[in-house]
Design brief:
With 165 residues, the protein is mainly alpha-helical. The protein is 65% helix and 11% strand. It contains seven helices and three strands, in the order αααβααββαα. The chain has a three-stranded antiparallel beta sheet. Helix 1 runs antiparallel to helix 2, helix 2 crosses helix 6 and helix 3 packs across helix 6. The radius of gyration is 20 Å and the shape is elongated. Keywords: DNA-binding, Transcription, Transcription regulation. This is MarR family transcriptional regulator. Pfam families: MarR (PF01047).
Length: 165
């Protein structure tokens, strides 16, 4: 089965037979898959009144364990976005009563973000639906193929410097 990237590669091979465009096939497919997945996830969260980045913060707080509290700096590190982006996300989540924000009593220059009861209930509900959607998005791959793809992507990400801190 061919995809749209195959057409691009065929054009390069026809126009520049001296080049091997195969890296474009890998990177192009990863990029297109990422955009398609992001679109589906964005729409999924929007139907529930959230942006993807807001869900990321809620999920990060939830999986951190009770008391579901992290510093804003820890959230910046886990989300790989700027502190300004985190601030805007937190503003929206505070307005929706999904998180609270307070000055850390032990470090006055640090802000602690805590999942509210309402936020915990919402993320617990959403994570089930989120996993169901992700299973559907991967349905064209069997379990062994999903495991193989996860391993290959892990190797790629490690090579690109995306390792646990």
């Amino acid at each position: 089965m061919r995809d749209s990237v195959d057409a691009i590669l065929a054009q390069w091979r026809a126009e520049r037979p001296d080049l091997d465009p195969s890296p474009m096939g890998v990177i192009g497919r990863i990029s297109r898959a990422a955009r398609a997945l992001e679109r589906r996830l964005r729409d999924h969260f929007a139907s529930r009144g959230l942006q993807s980045g807001e869900f990321d913060i809620l999920a990060t707080l939830r999986r951190s364990g009770a008391p579901y509290r992290l510093s804003a700096g820890a959230l910046v590190g886990s989300a790989m976005v700027t502190s300004g982006a985190i601030t805007h996300r937190l503003d929206r989540l505070v307005a929706k009563d999904l998180v609270t924000r307070e000055t850390d009593p032990d470090h006055r220059r640090s802000v602690l973000v805590t999942l509210t009861d309402h936020g915990r209930e919402l993320v617990d509900e959403l994570v089930d639906a989120h996993l169901e959607l992700e299973r559907a998005l991967l349905a064209d791959l069997d379990t062994a193929e999903q495991d193989q793809l996860a391993g290959l992507l892990r190797t790629l990400l490690n090579g690109l410097g995306d390792t646990p801190e």
